[in-house]
Fold each of these.
Amino acid sequence: MMFADTIVALSSGALPAGVAVVRLSGPAVIDVVSKLVGSVPPPRTACYAALHLPDGSVLDCGLVLYFPAPASFTGEDCAEFQLHGGRAVVQALLKHVASLPGCRLASAGEFTRRAFLNGKMDLLAAEAAADIISAETEAQRRFAVANSQGRNSELYASWRTRLLRARAFVEAELDFVDESDVPDAAAQAVWSDIDALVGEIDRHIDGFKKAEIVREGFDVVLLGAPNAGKSSLLNALAQREAAIVTDEPGTTRDLIEVVLDIEGSKVRVTDTAGIRDATGKVEQLGIQRARERASRAQLVLLLEDVGLDSPEVVLPKGKPFLRIGTKIDLCDGRPPNGYDHLVSCLTGDGLTELARAMGDAAKAAEPVAGELIPWRLRHVELLAEAVGHLRRAVEGERLPLELRSEEMRLAANALGTITGSIDVEDLLDVIFGQFCIGK
Ligand SMILES: Nc1nc2c(c(=O)[nH]1)N(C=O)[C@@H](CNc1ccc(C(=O)N[C@@H](CCC(=O)O)C(=O)O)cc1)CN2
Ligand SMILES: Nc1nc2c(ncn2[C@@H]2O[C@H](COP(=O)(O)OP(=O)(O)OP(=O)(O)O)[C@@H](O)[C@H]2O)c(=O)[nH]1
């Protein structure tokens, strides 16, 4: 696809900076570069040059690269200027280029959008690139880079091909029903394969939880009696005064959340109101919130002051938890039994080990290297849509074959929409590729 406009933008980060990268893409690139530099550098080679403005003055000196179409990021002619990262330098270049005929400032994501429209990458790759840029933890970076390698695209394409083949059988049965070219057994094999595919897609969808953990963080909730030391632990883990600490039981009423990076994993820790039979209305509401929040947690830390006989806090059934004995500095003599971890926020004892355990739990909940899971809600929604259509196709034994075939087509379209490759031409290709025309 050829775009008329040549687009220009600062592609590197906030200014001032050591170096700024200004990127251009579009048909006027050769023109713009030759005017500014006096010549066009050999393809894909960094050349040091002065950039001249039309009045003959030098804008700045820097590196210039030229990437001729189609072997460029966007598939169009592209160029890069790597200049001194000054605000006025970049401003002057952008202003000048945008004023040239056929040139304008790029809108958000426009280079990648062109790359997609020119077939340089599919939608999943474009989304993965955005995720690489927004990755803040090691786990997010690894996940985003893995997602940019195209293995999910291959998986969805393979499912789609399987579906289109199956549909070709069904269509053949429709067309040649009297000639009985397609034996019943073959048709039955189609339905059982689709049934198996539904199972595979469903299992794949289940993996989405892991993507959410990488993206949103592993969810840890601190629960315990008032004064157990929850807010103190939150602050110690966050290394800042995120929550108010007092010796008055019932200090924390609302949920207080901090986001940590523990050994490369994003971990969300929530402090809650101390659980007791409270009389005050605000505290009661806080306790209700605490219980509700804990029921959604991936891990609960159950805090107990080791010096006190605290009332038992009941957890939702099956909820993973660690028993944490707090204020271990107040305990003289033998350390108490029955705890997974003993900590003191006063001395810092046990905090590193506890943080490590939280990081390990987070890691265990993340996808392992090479595991294919859907990683955005958009993908899950389309996968679920595909499953919905396929269920109707498989279970609709009493439906006319045309409708069952149509459900299969819609399912294949939903899969194709994930990668952005849907194209009706494919179906024709598959059908005619498998059956001779004129038969
Ligand atoms: N200076 C610079 N660094 C960058 C980028 C960029 O645009 N400029 N990128 C921007 O996101 C990323 C790298 N992505 C890129 C992807 C494709 C091509 C490219 O030229 N592709 C051609 C040739 C491929 C080849 O030689 O193997 C092609 O696909 O035909 C360049 C960068 C990160 N680093
Ligand atoms: N000696 C000692 N005191 C601690 C420790 N951790 C917390 N405390 C004290 O225990 C009291 C209660 O601590 P908080 O962190 O507010 O307890 P909480 O569980 O958040 O309390 P609520 O908000 O009432 O639910 C405060 O006076 C803290 O200073 C500790 O490790 N050692």
Amino acid sequence: MNLKQLGWESFFENHFTDYDQEQFTVGRVALEYKRMYRLFTEHGELLAEITGKLRHSATERQDYPAVGDWVVISARPEEQKASIHAILPRKSKFSRKAAGVTTEEQIVAANIDTVFLVNALNTDFNLRRMERYLLMAWESGANPVIVLSKSDLCENVSQKLMEVESIAMGVPVHAISAENGEGLDQLSAYLEWGQTVALLGSSGAGKSTLTNALFGEKKQEVKTIREDDDKGRHTTTHRELVLLQGGGVVVDTPGMRELQLWEADEGVSQSFSDVAALAANCRFRDCQHTTEPGCAVQEAISDGTLDQERYNSYVKLQKELAFLARKEDQRLALAEKNKWKKISGDRTRVNRK
Ligand SMILES: Nc1nc2c(ncn2[C@@H]2O[C@H](COP(=O)(O)OP(=O)(O)OP(=O)(O)O)[C@@H](O)[C@H]2O)c(=O)[nH]1
Ligand SMILES: [Zn+2]
């Protein structure tokens, strides 16, 4: 496998120079099991475990490898195995709140260049949802592209395109149909050699159909490793990174389907830069945009330049984010405490020797 095709580039290379090049090489995580990782490497596919040292220094879930991560490994190609020593810094990442009572960050996929925000042009069409997806995309560090699918089922595509462009804030918007192939060629620019693409969108939006239409015949067969377990020998074919022939990589993880909003402060200001620009013109610095005199936001709503629903959506997201931030603060305090417990625990063990 060619590292460049897998998405290896100077960003990662620069970080890899910190490691001994004689001893280590790199791989990209294609699938995550409970304790094992399936990696794409120069030596083909390897099955890897993280070293005790890495496990020991990991205090949070995000300290463990995720699909799409580039990891520093020592490879044992003859056994088709490897050990993961470190995770290289992530260029972008999609996270979600890990299930449970605490809001721990769980990384769903890392190092995505472009994310297709897929929304169907029929009954699925919902600007408020698109705003949320945009927010997640900005927050992730990947470049969003809005894909309006099922254009064959829509009578007024140009009207819809205009509506979307009003909230898209300069993000490219493409109307496509996997059914009749319309617009598909516009997407190929994002799928060049070495590029990593992911798709986000609600169930039924047409992600799988689009994936098949775009990549169906391009999927590269990956030589599978046979592995032993107590049930005997078998081969797994499922991968969450899909390699394309002559192209890049598609991330296809179930986790992307369940994404929730996570700490998206920066995303809010980018997605709602129109609201932020208006708010800067309010007479009072601390204007709450409710009943204050000289409120530019309320003015814009009443003269129709700002859509009331868009503003409501902004307020709602702000509230959700404030709530998440409070939970996150509590979680960080706890993580810090646990880290110190772990460190002082180590010291106790050392002292006892
Ligand atoms: N008419 C038309 N139907 C489409 C198009 N793309 C997808 N569909 C149909 O929409 C339905 C849902 O498509 P999927 O690709 O399974 O949607 P998905 O987003 O992958 O859904 P999940 O797997 O639940 O996340 C299927 O019945 C598709 O045949 C299109 O361009 N035109
Ligand atoms: Zn105001």
